[in-house]
Design a protein that fits this description.
By secondary structure, the protein is of the alpha+beta class. It has a single domain, classed as Nucleoside Triphosphate Pyrophosphohydrolase. Helices cover 18% and strands 26% of the residues. Strands 3, 4, 5, 6, 7, 8, 9 and 10 form an eight-stranded mixed β-sheet that branches.
């Protein structure tokens, strides 16, 4: 296994910097609910009670993806600054287009890019606990530029729902130590959404401060770090 002294991370920049997202077409009114990256089931439901009675009928929308769940990986190393954690700046359209709406509190910044830990969708062919860790290995290489083994990856507690009122997805949290490993430029998946991705190593205090200040507003990142710090560390 190739190893080298700790570095500062990698910036993926094959084009000029991305400064905005432009809507070429909004086809919401003509698109079907069961096509696209997200699929919406529009249902009419009622509650069935133990005494045989039912509630009034009401509408339910459920958001699914062809790939049901995801895995997130807290990548960490022991460096000159103590524990360091890898984060990645990613284009996030849903967060960016919040600027078109009126939030309950004024936003202090625009969210063209969001900083978070490495994550990716679990393929339908990935079945079983070891397959989840195997998918984590692929994401660490694709988004972090690091090669690890399946047995290096550890779970960080049980999976969690993102927004169970509307989204069926669960996220499986994992962690992996990469102290001394040589990082290459992450190749990504070739999607335009990965343009301008920036990979950074944050010391523990820096990551905690960014979460506390709202500089990073990503739930899986905060939950993964909290679970990681709660575990005994040799």
């Amino acid at each position: 296994m190739q190893r080298a002294p700790s570095g500062k991370g990698v910036t993926t920049m094959r084009h000029a910097p991305v400064i905005a997202l432009e809507v070429v077409e909004d086809f919401s009114s003509t698109a079907r609910c069961d096509e696209g990256f997200l699929q919406i089931r529009r249902l009419r439901c009622r509650n069935r009670r133990s005494d045989g009675t039912h509630s009034a009928i009401y509408r339910v929308d459920v958001v699914d993806r062809p790939k049901l769940d995801a895995v997130a990986v807290l990548i960490w190393r022991r460096g000159a600054r103590g524990l360091e954690f890898l984060t990645r700046q990613n284009l996030r359209p849903a967060a960016y287009f919040r600027a078109e709406k009126t939030p309950v509190l004024a936003e202090s910044r625009e969210w063209l890019f969001c900083e978070e830990i490495v994550a990716g969708l679990i393929e339908p062919s990935d079945l079983g606990e070891r397959a989840i860790r195997g998918r984590a290995v692929e994401e660490v290489h694709e988004e972090g530029g690091l090669r690890v083994e399946v047995d290096d990856v550890r779970h960080l507690g049980p999976p969690f729902f993102v927004a169970p009122g509307i989204i069926s997805e669960k996220i499986f949290l994992t962690e992996v130590e990469v102290t001394g490993l040589v990082a290459t430029e992450p190749h990504g998946d070739g999607s335009p959404l990965e343009e301008g991705a920036v990979v950074t190593w944050r010391p523990l205090a820096s990551l905690q401060a960014a979460l506390a200040a709202g500089e990073i507003q990503d739930a899986k990142t905060e939950l993964a770090l909290g679970r990681f710090l709660a575990q005994p560390r040799p």
